[in-house]
């Protein structure tokens, strides 16, 4: 038998986290699957639960001139209603599961679950997002790529919680998102692809490509992006093979029940070419 703690303030939650060995429970949409039991029986949690979904401190969205701060317990569906959430993140969220799951699942849960197929992750990597990690005595911010160590693994210590996600503002005038799944809705991705570019007078000023489900965590390749920065978009056809070669070495998907490594790699490389060569 496990207990559930329902703190009424964030401070109280941090105290419980510091003193007890608990599982942080936000929307529970990943946890209920991870700890599932035989049909009609209660899930088999092996530790007490710390419910955070009602903590108002974790449900706020704040915008300044330079960044957007999203509370970790914001529901995915709530983010869709906010004017300050970048469209590319909304696009990814609209592709997550079904409305019912989006009404329960949180952005913090999607990040902390650290699935290679987590759909907000490629967008957050492409946007250079940071995360704020808090414990009873400390708070720190780190880049999302440093936060996620691999499937289901993050740098969070037992007494730490993901408090918020910080998205620096940036301008992009070529934007592309594609989730490739077995069907249009309610599918876990075989490949998810995000590309953002700022192109001025045909010159690529900024370019970010982030690909999910093709490695243990999201793939973003500095060498690939650097090969394109300051290049003329009209010369891309001469560069495309070189760029695809760079990405090909870094994309290391696996065969699983959803797809094959070969398919995933081919699709990812073709999406790179599509983004760079097609006028969107
Ligand atoms: C039917 C179904 C379909 C799905 N489809 C998709 C899909 O298409 N795309 C996709 O990306 N995901 C999908 N998911 C997964 C899931 O819905 C999302 O990952 C969701 O965002 C998880 O959020 P949650 O609040 O429910 O997380 P929870 O289940 O509450 O938690 C997930 C993990 O994160 C930890 N955690 C949560 N919040 C915090 C925090 N603030 N600080 C520290 N640790 C924390 C928990 O301890 C747990 O380890 C699906 C799930 C189901 C059941």
TrEMBL record:
<dbReference type="InterPro" id="IPR005107">
    <property type="entry name" value="CO_DH_flav_C"/>
</dbReference>
<dbReference type="GO" id="GO:0050138">
    <property type="term" value="F:nicotinate dehydrogenase activity"/>
</dbReference>
<dbReference type="InterPro" id="IPR036683">
    <property type="entry name" value="CO_DH_flav_C_dom_sf"/>
</dbReference>
<dbReference type="Pfam" id="PF03450">
    <property type="entry name" value="CO_deh_flav_C"/>
</dbReference>
<dbReference type="InterPro" id="IPR016167">
    <property type="entry name" value="FAD-bd_PCMH_sub1"/>
</dbReference>
<protein>
    <submittedName>
        <fullName>Nicotinate dehydrogenase FAD-subunit</fullName>
        <ecNumber>1.17.1.5</ecNumber>
    </submittedName>
</protein>
<feature type="domain" description="FAD-binding PCMH-type">
    <location>
        <begin position="1"/>
        <end position="172"/>
    </location>
</feature>
<dbReference type="Pfam" id="PF00941">
    <property type="entry name" value="FAD_binding_5"/>
</dbReference>
<keyword id="KW-0285">Flavoprotein</keyword>
<dbReference type="InterPro" id="IPR002346">
    <property type="entry name" value="Mopterin_DH_FAD-bd"/>
</dbReference>
<dbReference type="GO" id="GO:0071949">
    <property type="term" value="F:FAD binding"/>
</dbReference>
<dbReference type="InterPro" id="IPR016166">
    <property type="entry name" value="FAD-bd_PCMH"/>
</dbReference>
<dbReference type="InterPro" id="IPR051312">
    <property type="entry name" value="Diverse_Substr_Oxidored"/>
</dbReference>
<dbReference type="InterPro" id="IPR036318">
    <property type="entry name" value="FAD-bd_PCMH-like_sf"/>
</dbReference>
<keyword id="KW-0560">Oxidoreductase</keyword>
<dbReference type="InterPro" id="IPR016169">
    <property type="entry name" value="FAD-bd_PCMH_sub2"/>
</dbReference>
